[in-house]
Design brief:
Number of domains: 2
Radius of gyration: 28 Å
Helix content: over 70%
CATH topology of the largest domain: Receptor-associated Protein
CATH architecture of the largest domain: Up-down Bundle
CATH class of the largest domain: Mainly Alpha
Number of helices: 14
CATH superfamily of the largest domain: Type II secretion system (T2SS), domain F
Largest sheet: none
Mean pLDDT: 81
């Protein structure tokens, strides 16, 4: 039943491990306790392996690094720093809190896109069913009328005729185009331009940008607070982002730092304009005051609140638009079908 490890599984594992270690329980005993509690077979097998490696003298960070598809560089970096500095329990607790925030952030983004996604999918399915199986039957029905048809009915019949003759080809082409586009936008030559395009979309672009900014600020702030050098922190943070425009900007930021420039100077570069003026100014101030970690963590919380606002506005804005569009389509179809029937019954009465 459980053949993979979810993000929530990883969050709970980190949280429970931090609680046990903070309570003074040795690492090996803590892992044994978590193994007994684990319900996911994959998680249980991972914990067993971690316990065996730690017993044999391996560090927790090195043991976790054997599962790179589960524990990323951000996770491993904090664990490694915690073990080397003797603050493993604090780093685990901090990591668990940040992961919980990231998990909530993902859920907010999914929740914001869920409603319009369901409506669009339902509209496509119902529209396809009506076009393929209902409209073609109307063609013979209305052509039998010996009366002038209203314009709406003529338009509907044209669509019905097209669907009768080419309906399956039309929807097959749409599905093929969707699959082809999905594959094309993941090609290395196209993906960067696609990610830039996403950032320019109304509302959706802001949602993506703020999610990347929140993750960047929170992860970088967490690493710096834990004592990881800035250059290494930027390298690790770039690996936690998903939009190539932001990944490229963070990598460019790191390159400028290696040339002896500070963050304030690098943020003024044109390639880093994905960072809004507020973020650039606050990071610059945080660097000058020596509180860059606190500033970044504040920015992470700030952009998460911005995502909350966009999520609410997105549903509020899209709901009436979708209802109006669907209402117009239903009204047009109803008018096109009822009008000729009404005229025919009127002529029969006369």
């Amino acid at each position: 039943m459980f053949d993979h490890l979810t993000y929530l599984d990883k969050v709970l594992f980190t949280k429970h491990l931090s609680v046990l270690i903070r309570a003074g329980i040795p690492l090996v005993t803590s892992l044994t306790t978590l193994e007994a509690q684990a319900k996911n077979p994959l998680l249980k097998s991972i914990i067993i392996h971690l316990g065996e490696e730690v017993k044999n003298g391996q560090s927790l960070a090195r043991s976790l690094s054997r599962y790179p598809h589960i524990f990323d560089n951000f996770y491993l970096g904090l664990i490694e720093v915690g073990e080397s500095s003797g603050s493993l329990e604090e780093n685990l607790e901090f990591l668990a809190k940040q992961m919980a925030k990231d998990y909530n952030l993902r859920n907010k983004i999914r929740g914001a896109l869920l409603y319009p996604g369901i409506v669009f999918l339902a509209t496509f399915i119902m529209g396809g069913f009506i076009s393929l199986f209902i409209l073609p039957k109307l063609v013979d029905f209305f052509t039998a009328f010996e009366t002038n048809l209203p314009l709406a009915t003529i338009i509907l019949l044209s669509i019905a005729n097209f669907m009768k003759n080419y309906g399956f080809l039309f929807f097959g082409s749409l599905i093929t185009l969707f699959i082809f586009t999905s594959l094309a936008i993941n090609l290395p030559a196209i993906k960067p331009y696609y990610h830039q395009f996403l950032l320019r979309l109304p509302m959706i672009g802001n949602l993506i940008a703020y999610s990347q900014l929140s993750r960047f600020a929170r992860n970088l702030g967490t690493l710096i607070k834990s004592g990881v050098p800035l250059s290494q922190s930027l390298t690790v943070t770039s690996g936690t982002l998903s939009n190539l425009s932001f990944i490229s900007a963070v990598q460019a930021m790191n390159q400028h730092l290696t040339k002896g420039k500070n963050l304030a100077d690098t943020l003024s570069q044109s390639r880093l304009q994905v960072f809004p003026p507020l973020a650039r100014e606050m990071i610059s101030v945080g660097e000058k005051t020596g509180k860059i970690d606190e500033t970044l963590l504040y920015l992470g919380d700030f952009y998460e609140e911005e995502i909350d606002d966009i999520s609410k506005n997105l549903s509020t804005t899209l709901e009436p638009i979708l209802l109006i569009v669907i209402g117009l389509v239903v009204g047009f179809v109803a008018l096109a079908i009822i009008s000729p029937i009404y005229e025919l019954t009127g002529s029969i009465r006369r």
